[in-house]
Amino acid sequence: MFSGWSQLERCSVCGLVFTRNPGDTWAFTIIGDRLPLGVMIVLVYFGVVRSHPVLGVILLVVLAALVIWTAPNRWGAGIALHYLSRVYWPDPADPIPPPRSQAPNPRVR
User: How far apart are CA 106 and CA 103, in angstroms?
Assistant: First the structure.
């Protein structure tokens, strides 16, 4: 789904378009990315930083590194949740490839 830090447009094997319209994964990104980040900031700001400033700064740096390091995984989870929503609530105009069990088998003639 990603090449480095850039998101690929479609799957090279099945042709699935990961994000059909810009903003499709917005809700899943907010839930999986921004809310945990906000909770971490609130916990650190109102807890550790006020009572132990040095430990708080170290914790902020560690959490920032963790957020940056896990970003592609969290974004990929958001794209996967969006895909599941497309499968369970299909749109007729959505170009989702058929499941492998329904796809024509090239070996069978």
Answer: 9
Q: Residue 79, CB half-sphere, CA atoms under 13 Å: how many?
A: 20
Read off the DSSP letter of residue 2: E
Q: Which residues contact residue 14 at a Cβ distance below 8 angstroms, ignoring those fewer than 6 apart?
A: 97
Enter the DSSP assignment of 91: -
Does the predicted TM-score (pTM) go above 0.70? no
Q: Is residue 107 over pLDDT 60? A: no
Count other Cβ atoms within 10 Å, centred on residue 83: 19
Sign of CA dihedral 27, 25, 1, 94: positive
What distance in Å separates the CA atoms of residue 94 and residue 31, rounded to the nearest whole number? 24
